[in-house]
Amino acid sequence: MSPYVAYLDLTEPVELPDNTTLRLMNSADLPAVVALEQQNALTPWSLRSFELSLNTKQANWVVYFEATLVGFICANIIVDELHILNLSVAQEYRGQGLATALIMQLCRAVKDVPIRVIYLEVRQSNKVAQKLYRKLGFSLDGVRKGYYQGERGIREDALLMSRDF
Ligand SMILES: CC(C)(COP(=O)(O)OP(=O)(O)OC[C@H]1O[C@@H](n2cnc3c(N)ncnc32)[C@H](O)[C@@H]1OP(=O)(O)O)[C@@H](O)C(=O)NCCC(=O)NCCS
User: Domain limits at 38?
Assistant: First the structure.
């Protein structure tokens, strides 16, 4: 288990850079969310996927810099499990703690649900995201072989990561 787990409480209040706001995602955000997804994801979610995700209350968040959508997180709750399904920050706004803030806001929002564990999947090649998750106390549970569609038709493994809530 990661050494961070013992002391990093993901439900602590979230600190944000100036002029940045976090709030629940709603359907009016979706055009900007889909545009960001298309810039950032190798196999982007469709508009319909985001619409369906909105059915899970308190689990979809956006971050804005002034009037510009600069990041989002989507999750699902299955009984006592929180599954992080999608997370993205616009290239020019990275490295300021926005992904960390989105994850922590999500955890604060669901803290009245008896969540036991948080799960996620990440591409084997996505070392930046893996570093983020390890910093937040996630550790490797296993590998799903060929889970993702990769570049040039080559399948890519998914790393399964989790941490106790
Ligand atoms: C992964 C991603 C969401 C990180 O967003 P971010 O807002 O830049 O992340 P944060 O600023 O909260 O970074 C927190 C930690 O992540 C790690 N990290 C972030 N960017 C990094 C980089 N370029 N190189 C190495 N580590 C990095 C660091 O450990 C960092 O902590 P530190 O600043 O104390 O070193 C963003 O790069 C992104 O949107 N990538 C494309 C989509 C994606 O990969 N989504 C995740 C799918 S599983």
Answer: 20-116
Taking only the tens place, the pLDDT of each residue in 3-34 is: 554 568 999 988 899 999 999 999 999 999 99
Would you call 33 helix, strand, or coil by DSSP? helix
Q: Which residue lies with its CA nearest to atom 44 of ligand 1?
A: 129
Position in ligand 1 atom list of the atom nearest CA 90: 39
Say which CATH number the domain at 55 has.
3.40.630.30
161 within some domain:
no
- Phi, then psi, of 131 in degrees rounded to 5: -65, -40
User: Which atom of ligand 1 is found nearest the CA of 129?
Assistant: 1
Q: 13: which DSSP letter?
A: P
Helix (H) or strand (E) holding 105: helix 98-109
128-153 pLDDT, tens digit each: 999 999 999 999 999 999 999 888 88
Q: What domain count does the chain have?
A: 1
Q: H/E element holding 69?
A: strand 68-78
Is position 5 within any domain? no
A 10 A CB-CB count for 132 gives 17
